[in-house]
Amino acid sequence: MKSETDKPRILIIDDNPSIHEDFRKILTVDRETQSLADAANAFFGDDEGGSNDIEGGPPLEVELDSAYQGQEGYQKVLSAMMEGRPYTLAFCDIRMPPGWDGLTTIEHLWQADPNLQVVICSAYSDNTWADISRRLGRSDRLLILKKPFDNAEVMQLAVALIEKRRLINAASVKQVELEAMVQERTQQLEQRDQALRQKQKLESIGSLAGGVAHEFNNLLQAIGGYTSFAMEEIDPEGQAYNDLTHVVEATSRASEITGQLLSFSRKQTPKRRFVLLKRFLIRR
To answer: E.C. number, please (predicted)?
Structure first.
């Protein structure tokens, strides 16, 4: 059995109290009547339990509320929305003097709850379907039930519209889930796009660095080569020879740097090697 909060909620809006009682007899069964029926079934051995079924099937597990004027029904729908327990369906009379008529009431009901399913109950022919459509628009949320109504017809309408509202709610939940999935996927694609752009930038920088390093390395080879030639022509004990030695060392260090740039541009794996820190400290 469903809990009170899980039951579909139906609102009856009619100025005639007897109409409310008729709906209760058709759609629900009070606990006292149900207990008596269960006791009778147990005593007489009626396992089918059909004695308390009205014409059109067994009663529904619904929460039934009453409003006797359109303004009252509107306030109940507003309160239900604020509580987070909206009505599934409203049966609304077309004439409810001295307050709002049924069409005015429905306009206000849909302002409060756009998804509310509504059945107009009327014994009069002064409002044609064309008149109602011009006033309320063509909507799949609206049906007409002529008085005096048939019990089975009321039950069928209630069952169909309750299921329709359930499917609408399920679709809304699914839509929210899909929107969240799309948003998450979009964020992932944006992150991948940013990563790809960054990779392309690094590749461009690497190509530029490789080109510069290649040209610079050619210059260093020329400097180193001509310096070595000059050192062969001078006295190794002189100051000039000592100065040129520093030029060769600087050229060698610059060549190492260009080699690193070329490795970066070619995406080569850096090679590990042992070095003497003393050598670098002396250079400093």
So the answer is: 2.7.13.3
